[in-house]
Amino acid sequence: MLTQIDFLDVVRLTPLVAIDLIVSDAEGRVLIGHRRNRPARGTWFVPGGRILKDETLDAAFTRIADAELGIAKLARSAARFEGAFEHHYSDNFAAEPGVSTHYVVLAYALSSGSTQSIGRLDQHSDYLWLTPAELLAHPDVHENTKAYFR
């Protein structure tokens, strides 16, 4: 496990690789969470997380789905790959001045049968289900999330 100082060096020097989860319900609404963490703290964003060193894509997907959504043992094969996206942020997890964050994000879409128990409040302070049109019109939804629907 990296120390915070070592991880800050990684963020300063390299892009991070992450998985975003575009979860929709039976009505076509999309799950977004109000971010607690930097970067993009205080904005609405689809759930997701970074891939760890030596972690396979399948293992990362399953871990992120559990950590972000509270869905255990979800297989990546249950989702549809939507493509690779780049996310650039002027800040970083440590709020260290002058250190930006660059993600290469693999976006996966999946459907949820239940909207009742999805989401983990340790990751996001609140959750919303919005149609793509509502999401695109919402001023506090982050541009990187809106890019999935343009």
TrEMBL record:
<dbReference type="Pfam" id="PF00293">
    <property type="entry name" value="NUDIX"/>
</dbReference>
<feature type="binding site">
    <location>
        <position position="123"/>
    </location>
    <ligand>
        <name>Mg(2+)</name>
    </ligand>
</feature>
<dbReference type="InterPro" id="IPR033715">
    <property type="entry name" value="GDPMH"/>
</dbReference>
<dbReference type="InterPro" id="IPR000086">
    <property type="entry name" value="NUDIX_hydrolase_dom"/>
</dbReference>
<feature type="site" description="Critical for catalysis">
    <location>
        <position position="124"/>
    </location>
</feature>
<dbReference type="GO" id="GO:0008727">
    <property type="term" value="F:GDP-mannose mannosyl hydrolase activity"/>
</dbReference>
<protein>
    <submittedName>
        <fullName>GDP-mannose mannosyl hydrolase</fullName>
        <ecNumber>3.6.1.-</ecNumber>
    </submittedName>
</protein>
<feature type="binding site">
    <location>
        <position position="68"/>
    </location>
    <ligand>
        <name>Mg(2+)</name>
    </ligand>
</feature>
<feature type="binding site">
    <location>
        <position position="48"/>
    </location>
    <ligand>
        <name>Mg(2+)</name>
    </ligand>
</feature>
<keyword id="KW-0460">Magnesium</keyword>
<feature type="short sequence motif" description="Nudix box">
    <location>
        <begin position="49"/>
        <end position="70"/>
    </location>
</feature>
<keyword id="KW-0479">Metal-binding</keyword>
<feature type="domain" description="Nudix hydrolase">
    <location>
        <begin position="12"/>
        <end position="150"/>
    </location>
</feature>
<keyword id="KW-0378">Hydrolase</keyword>
<dbReference type="GO" id="GO:0046872">
    <property type="term" value="F:metal ion binding"/>
</dbReference>
<dbReference type="InterPro" id="IPR015797">
    <property type="entry name" value="NUDIX_hydrolase-like_dom_sf"/>
</dbReference>
